[in-house]
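Provenance and format

Records in this collection were gathered into a single text stream. Each protein contributes a sequence line and a token line. The two records reproduced below are adjacent in the stream.
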Amino acid sequence: MPLRDTLARVDADLAAGRVPVARQRLRGLVSSFPNDLMLRRRLAEVYRLYGEPAEAGRWMYLEQDRDAAETSAFEARYRTAPQRMRALAWHGPESLAPSDFARGQLAAVRAASSAAIGRPVDWDTLPSGSTADGKAGGLADFMAGAGCLVAALAFLAIWVNGLVALFD
């Protein structure tokens, strides 16, 4: 569906009070057109309707006329530069940004992420799940370890049960 038609549906959804549907449509559009600041602005407006300043700040982060409280809420939710870089969901080089302010914001976040991870990163190759030190997140590590432990214990129980059955 063309961009113009989808935006018309977003407007119709908002007029009918279907805010969640409008939000989903806009999230899809931002995913398809990650470098379109107008779509990000529209998504921020929808998040304001939800009363979610961190998400509004996320999608207005590249705009010079952004709200300082929303920006602070976004930065508090996404504390590290790599987290912010992933949250911004930008694709391609900063030069694709339509304003000097947006290019500056993107370059600053990318530079801070590179410093935090310890190697150069770009918008299309930031490791998913990395934290400020470049390691995977704590919950992901814990769940992976717990899964391996459960599998090893199950294998051991089956093996011991087989040995007992063999000698009975």
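Adjacent record:
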Amino acid sequence: MLDLRKLRYFLTVAEELHFGRAAIRLHLAQPPLTRQISALETELGFKLFDRTSRTVTLTAQGRSFLPYARGVLEQVELAQVIAGKLAAGTAGQLALGYVSSIALSDLFSQTIQAFAQRFPDVQLTLVECASGSLGAQVADGRLDIGLSRLLPQGEEVQVLSLGDERLVAAVSSDSPLASLPSVNLAQLSAYPVILFPADYGSGLNQTIEQLYRRHGQPLRLGPTGRQITSIIALVAAGQGVALVPTCTQSLMNKGVTYRPLMEGDACAPLLVLTRKEEQNLSIRAFMTVIDEVVRAG
């Protein structure tokens, strides 16, 4: 295996084409430098330099070998830089899981943008999934961080609350509800509610079911959608109403009107899930960024 130190000596002499000046740059006496170059030539099996008492020039083999030697040293320097960033948590990989209703929020987009700008060497993988599976995927390491609306089962996951997001009613623009400035659950109870599938493990479903139960209103089940976008499409098609986070209003579907809910407790939680005792520095960096975005917002 080639000695990296000898490659550095070779590169310096090739740049200077003078052993004396190269030795000064390397903080080395000239005789040891000459011996190291000779040893490298022996290892390689060919001469690198033609030397006279007055000139030093690269041989044909030396010129051909030079870019490869330079490339090796550049890769070593890059590896050292990346190693330092990995040690500092500013490089690596990060798998972020999220539920579809959170992906529409300003918090989500601003955090992703800020993190990517600050830590460009961290490869961020985004995985959309149901709230019911997020906790398990964080616990077993498939995901590093989860953005959820559902408290996970088990003790392996640490939960940080980022607060609550108000819910609004999405109603068909043809519905009498669309003409009202705001609506309440008593008015909505006359309509089927479009939810995520029951086996989806949706935190938003759980929030809506608990809200109807607290206010003593019957919950009529309508068709289901596996994405927040499909739920809104079903509302536009007149298949029922939906209770969705405020950020969903960015989906300006034709045929859908959003109305505030009168109930003060009509809110959906926003939770960040990580593994307990997690030492991954990239995760800590992401948590710092999302905390800054929450405080700024």
